[in-house]
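Lab intake sheet, docking and co-folding queue.

SAMPLE TYPE: protein with bound small molecule
LIGAND NAME: phycocyanobilin
LIGAND FORMAT: SMILES
REQUESTED OUTPUT: full 3D complex as structure tokens
PRIORITY: normal
SUBMITTED BY: R.K., bench team

The fields below were copied directly from the construct record.
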Amino acid sequence: MRDAVTNLIKNYDVAGRYFDRNALDSLKSYFDSGTARVQAAAAINSNAAALVKQAGLKLFEELPELIRPGGNSYTTRRYAACLRDLDYYLRYATYALVAGNTNVLDERVLQGLRETYNSLGVPIGPTVRGVQILKDLAKEQAAAAGVANAAFIDEPFDHITRELSEQDI
Ligand SMILES: CCC1=C(C)/C(=C/C2=NC(=C\c3[nH]c(/C=C4\NC(=O)[C@H](C)[C@H]4CC)c(C)c3CCC(=O)O)/C(CCC(=O)O)=C2C)NC1=O
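RESULT FIELD (auto-filled):
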């Protein structure tokens, strides 16, 4: 598992090189955004349960067929599994947010996920939509907590949706 710093060290060590200007710029930008990243994660953490619940309600309001007979979130067991998945995405997104790197998502969340979803008939498109809704809610939460430039919050969520949508993961 890597963060912004260990990832950079790994890449430069492989090449046997000292950090150059690019590396130093990217380190500087990581450290400059550090406090904001931690603040955003804290704002999300303290409201995680409500964010997941809200995201689920919004998703099922947009796509009510998911919770009707034949839908993948029909039955309380599967409804709960869907919300649990959203909770995983939110929690791991906050780790990636603080790490400044999406490697934790690749290693702990996305590996083999498409195959699992395909074998269980969990629909990818609606899952992607659920992650987008979570992202919007998380950004609102961070903004309400005073995290001014919350653009970096997009990164982990966009990574999840991009990887889920890929044909070959
Ligand atoms: C931490 C990393 C991690 C992830 C990401 C994860 C996902 C994950 N989601 C699963 C199931 C599931 N996932 C969903 C999710 C949904 N269905 C929908 O209609 C919605 C679109 C969507 C919610 C947004 C559902 C309903 C199931 C149960 C499917 C079934 O058993 O039939 C399963 C199968 C095993 C189980 O039910 O627990 C896994 C492994 N598990 C992990 O350990």
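REVIEWER NOTE: The chain has two domains: 1-32, 34-164.
SIGN-OFF: pending second check by T.M.
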